[in-house]
Amino acid sequence: MNSEQLTETLRLHKLWAVGDMHGSRANLIRADLTGANLDGADLAGANLIGADLAGADLIRANLTGAVITGIVCQSGPIGSRRDYLVTVWQPDWENEQVTAGCWRGTLKELADRVARVYGESRYGKEYVAAIAYHQDMVRIAREGLPQSTTP
Q1: CA distance 110 to 94
Q2: Burial (0-12, 13-18, 19+ Cβ within 10 Å), 139
Q3: Do strands 67-68 and 71-78 pair parallel, antiparallel, or not at all (unpaired)?
Q4: Could you give the CA distance from residue 78 to residue 100 in angstroms, rounded to a whole number?
Q5: Under the phi-then-psi rule, with left for phi > 0, alpha for psi from -120 to 50, and beta for the rest, what region is 93?
Q6: 140 confidence band (pLDDT: 50, 70, 90)
Q7: End-to-end CA distance of the chain
Q8: Whose C-alpha in 5, 39, 125, 146 is 20 to 30 A from the C-alpha of 118?
Q9: Long-range Cβ pairs for the range 40-47 (8 Å, 24+)
């Protein structure tokens, strides 16, 4: 899906969300949204089953009621930049993908960075709590999968 198609899909979804008969629910089943800028996108109720969200910017995206394979967790605003921590994980991925402001990596990498940069400060404690929550959610999602699909 190219950026123009995504923009149009989001426009129609926004109309659908407010009950406009000219709108339609976003059907993003198996869509390649790798690296897509979805910052602030209203995807409430969208169908995202099997969509590849690797590296997608989901900061401030509304995913309420969206149908997703895997999980998306968001916490914030936290840290010195008062930004959002977003974790995305899908069953066929070995590791989760995390965005914290402009930083990207895994929860383990973020925990290591937070320890180095923030230590026991207020910001460090905020991140440690959020990271623990996101780790728990990924673990629970992995445990809910049939054994054959767990990476």
Answers
A1: 16
A2: exposed
A3: unpaired
A4: 9
A5: beta
A6: very high
A7: 27
A8: 39
A9: 41/10, 42/10, 42/13, 42/14, 42/17, 43/10, 43/13, 44/17, 45/16, 45/17, 46/13
pLDDT single digits (tens) 118-132: 999 999 999 999 999
Q: What is the pLDDT of residue 118?
A: 97
Give the span between the Cα atoms of 144 and 137, in whole angstroms: 11
Q: Which two tokens stand for residue 143?
A: 């445990």
3-state secondary structure the chain: CCHHHHHHHHHHHHHHHCCCCCCCCCECCCCECCCCECCCCECCCCEECCCECCCCECCCCECCCCEECCEEEEEEEECCCCEEEEEEECCCCCCCEEEECCEEECHHHHHHHHHHHCCCCHHHHHHHHHHHHHHHHHHHHHHCCCHHHCC
Return mean pLDDT, the chain: 91
- Residue 87 clears pLDDT 90, i.e. is over it: yes
61 vs 40: CA distance, rounded Å: 4
Burial of 128 (0-12, 13-18, 19+ CB in 10 A): middle
